[in-house]
Amino acid sequence: MEMGTIYILQCNMCSPSPWLSHVYAHLRHVFLAHSELPDLLPDIDTFRKSINGWVHVVPMYYLQCELEEGCLAADVESDNRHLLKFSTLSLNRGLADFHPFEPPDQWEFHQCHNHYHSHDTFAHYELLFPDGRTAAEGRKASFCLEDSICIETHRRYSGCQNYGQGISKDCGDLYSSRVSCQWIDITGVKGGNYVIQVTVSPGQEVPESDYENNQISCNITLYERNGYYLPMVAEDACARRGMQCVCERERERE
User: Fold this and answer.
1) What tens digit of pLDDT does each residue of 150-192 get?
2) Residue 3: helix, strand or coil by DSSP?
3) Which domains are delineated in the chain?
4) Are the C-beta atoms of residues 137 and 126 closer than 8 Å to each other?
5) Cα–Cα distance, 16 to 28 (Å, whole number)
6) How many CB atoms lie within 10 A of CB 234?
7) For residues 221 and 232, what is the distance between their CA atoms, to the nearest angstrom?
8) How far apart are CA 254 and CA 222, in angstroms?
9) What's the burial of 254, exposed, middle or buried (CB within 10 Å: 0-12/13-18/19+)?
10) pLDDT band (50, 70, 90) for residue 86
11) Which of 13, 151, 173, 239 is most solvent-facing, going by the fewest CB within 10 Å?
12) Strand pairing of 215-225 and 228-232?
């Protein structure tokens, strides 16, 4: 594993030109003046702080439900899976509640985990090489959209029934690292420098006031020791798409 230069976030994740930013901001302002829509954005601190720690090694015997739900790498044959776990908090900072795009009578019931899926994929997770190629990816089906935390408002959505799911405005839905499928299966991935990326509502089925803030990316180093991985994410190594980020430069390891 090369320990010299670390390349910071790919440039296609960064801010557009100042002129494009101005045009986009103007168009968004005009659009919002006539619309009240939700606006999801993943919380950077919750995601970054949850990553650092040993990658979990889990026997396939305990992952049959997860295999059925597509939460494991399909092209890997191994009796044990190396799972890079993390938490994601999807905040709704818009002017309206976020609801599943399909009506409850079309939600799919999964017998294995005894719950309903209201989205095919609510969040998409990727581990990328520094040049942008995919090293490993995962997904998180939206089996339960609810208000985990709220800011100056009351929780309106709770429970995992086949009705009444959503994320209220000024609230957030927390997927803890303890939740099934809240990971990327990195079995077979070599130690080194990568970019880990999270996108909420990647299919953009539900109208939002801003899709540009639905994605965050962090530089991550996987240290490999005796068949185990230790992931490390620096405090200043994350950025949101559309933010002023630190691509187009390098940082030298001291």
Assistant:
1) 987 788 888 777 677 899 999 999 999 998 889 999 999 999 9
2) coil
3) 5-25+36-252 (2.60.40.10)
4) yes
5) 15
6) 15
7) 5
8) 18
9) exposed
10) very high
11) 151
12) antiparallel
